[in-house]
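Justification of resources, computational component.

The compute hours requested in this renewal are based largely on the per-chain cost of generating structure records like the one below. Each record pairs the submitted sequence with a full structure-token output. That output is archived, and it is also reused by downstream analysis tasks.
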Amino acid sequence: MTEPATDPQLLGVARRLLSARGFRVRESQLGGLADASWLLAENEYFLLGLAAGATLDDLRALEGYVAAEMGELFEAETLGAKRWDSYVVLLASSDGDQKGRPELLRLKYNTRSLRRLISLGVQASDEAVGSALATFLPLPDPPEGGLASPFDELVEQLVINGVAADTAAQAVSSYRSRVPVE
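The structure output for this chain reads:
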């Protein structure tokens, strides 16, 4: 069997993003593979085993190794309720067009011992990796001065979508006051 191609750049971006968002991150070699690393990331809510490969086929191979590492961890440590918030996260830099393949769906929906989050076609950028990991990342702080009124944003969106500004403002104002619009 040929070893799966890993993506150290993708793994590095993930390590940096998770660390910056309060996760304790440890990188280790995957047992049984000569040149493959994985991340174990933990915060107060989640325990993630993360691997990055080049293709879906690489992820299929890496998944078994990461799941085995996570299984050993579960036997060795008392995780409490976090045991049920543990995930194998697999990122691939290519194969973004393969999202409906049966083997991907079987892997994604195999929840026997661990849940799996799989993202294909992820570039080694903060935005792309952050989007793939969004499930686990805290929401950003609101802007200084608070968030804009949703009603003001609705008026803006109506105008952007072709409704006259005065008509949009009147419709939203009418809705807020519960007076019928004529």
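The chain has a mean pLDDT of 88. The domain at 8-136 is CATH 3.40.1350 (Trna Endonuclease; Chain: A, domain 1).
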